[in-house]
Design brief:
Blueprint: H1 2-15, H2 41-55, H3 62-68, H4 72-82
Length: about 80
C-alpha cells in the first residue's frame, strides 16, 4: 500500500502540474481539496481521468468522487479494492 501511495503522490503532482509541491510535502491524511492541497473542481476531473487511464476505474457518481478524493489514504484504499489495471 505504501508503494501505491507514493505512486499516487507522484502522479498527482505530475498530472496537476503542482510544481511547487514535493512528494514529501503531501501527507497521506491531508485533505486534497480545500485547506489541504487546495485542489479545485478542474483538478477533480483530472483525477477522475487518472483513475480511469492508470487504474481502469470509472467513476460515474460525483458523490462517490467526493468521498474517494478526500486524501491519499482514501484514494489508495479505493484503488487497491477496485483497480482493474
Amino acid at each position: 500500500m505504501e508503494a501505491l501511495k507514493q505512486e499516487l503522490k507522484e502522479k498527482i503532482i505530475a498530472v496537476l502540474n503542482l510544481e511547487d509541491i514535493a512528494v514529501a510535502d503531501i501527507n497521506d491524511t491531508d485533505a486534497l481539496f480545500g485547506d489541504g492541497l487546495g485542489l479545485d473542481s478542474i483538478d477533480a476531473l483530472e483525477l477522475i481521468v487518472l483513475l480511469d487511464k492508470d487504474y481502469g476505474i470509472k467513476l460515474t457518481d460525483p458523490k462517490e468522487g467526493k468521498h474517494i478524493f478526500q486524501s491519499i489514504d482514501t484514494m489508495s484504499s479505493y484503488i487497491a479494492a477496485n483497480r482493474t489495471k
